[in-house]
Amino acid sequence: MAKNSSAYVCSECGWRAVKWVGRCGECQQWGTVVEAGTPRATLGKTVRAAPPEAGREARPITELSTDAAVHRPSGIAELDRVLGGGIVPGAAILFSGEPGVGKSTLLLDVAARIAGHGARVLYASGEESTGQIRMRAERTDALREALYLASENDLATVLGHIEAVQPELVIVDSVQTLASDQVEGGAGGPAQVREVASALIREAKARGVPIILVGHVTKDGSVAGPRLLEHLVDVVCHFEGDRQSSLRFLRTLKNRFGPTDEIGCFEMTSTGIAEVPDPSGLFLSRSSEPLSGTCATVAMEGRRALPVEVQALVAASATPNPRRVTSGVDSSRVAMVLAVLERRVGVKLHDKDVYVSTVGGVRLIEPAADLAIALAVISAVTDRPLPHELAAIGELSLAGEIRPVLGGAQRANEARRLGYRRLVDADAGTLQRARAMALADQ
């Protein structure tokens, strides 16, 4: 039998080592390996288990039923869209997001809507008291008789509440605040998070009750705790938004029951979180007259096409090094577009400050916005506004050619649906021709 020694584990990915090292051998992170206690001695051979009980034996896949994995609507259409149609019984869903983005408010609304149909819902919070949750529920009109609240930090007590209430949905806010007395370390540690998540997921699978776990995030936006947490759950959702904007987006990073390319749109209001079923007009300016330096494009958020307005401002520079300021767009792509404009179209920008931004705080990171950025800059330089009914969709090459983009047909259909009768895309061929088409009859 091997000699017992202290085990060390990485707090980020769960990698184990027999001695302390400064850098994790799996995720290559520095300073994340900490002592985790003494491991149990291992046997030289695994003992074969007894035959499984009746009903748990292996069966042909063609004889199995999918009735237990049917999506059940939550009452919030945008959330159901992201989850693939609703909440699956027995599913483990991990909700992550920065502090103050509205995770607890959204989940309290979900709990109230489900409890409004007579289903029992248990909301266990380790961060707030029941009185604080009650105050927020009054403000958001989430008071329901079938909604049960508990303020607990002990895992065993939460499991006892589940046994007593017999809920049809469990919400735990958050998994980093619970601790088990069977595991050493404080709440939020890798071993505690692993044990708490495993116990709650086992309970959900055994009872066929869906459970939603709220997870904290680190400075870089990833889920705090061991990487194993994201592997244990069935769905990982990330709730994001800008503090200066009321708009919130819900994205799926992992989904065993549906697609991972959907996005839900919400708006933070004084009475809670409100879903935005058609956010088409949120990223467009409200000017009635055409203004120079603006151009509309159609971005893809998941499988949803959203019109976005790009604005550009070009001014004479008072410094030897002109400024290039961007907001909502990739600065490196803007620099490339400006170089293409100067070299292929002859637009002189080397002595001018250029500012490029999007409307509504949306972020464009896809190359399909290249053409809209280029036309907005051209419009700003020439002080000639583009028509309101024009939209530009296309990627620019270094040779000045316009390339087709992914989902071009869907983008074009959405643009026409919103009233953009003139569409400049890859059919224009080159940036010079696109410029002529955009400024025609102006």
Describe this structure in words.
Strand 9 and strand 10 form a beta hairpin. The protein folds into three domains: 7-37; 70-277, P-loop containing nucleotide triphosphate hydrolases (Rossmann fold), CATH 3.40.50; 281-438, Ribosomal Protein S5, domain 2 (2-Layer Sandwich), CATH 3.30.230.10. The chain has ten helices and 20 strands. Helix content is 25%, strand content 24%. The chain is an alpha/beta fold and 442 residues long. Helix 7 crosses helix 8 (370-382). A nine-stranded mixed beta sheet has the order 6-5-7-8-4-9-10-11-12, with helices on both faces. It has a four-stranded mixed beta sheet with strand order 13-14-16-15. A three-stranded antiparallel beta sheet has the order 2-1-3, with no helix packed on it. The chain has helices spanning 77-83, 103-115, 130-139, 155-165, 190-207, 228-232, 331-345, 370-382, 408-417, 431-438, and strands spanning 7-10, 16-17, 33-37, 92-97, 121-125, 147-151, 169-173, 211-215, 235-241, 247-255, 263-269, 272-275, 294-301, 304-316, 324-327, 352-358, 390-392, 395-396, 402-403, 422-424. The chain is elongated and about 75 Å long.
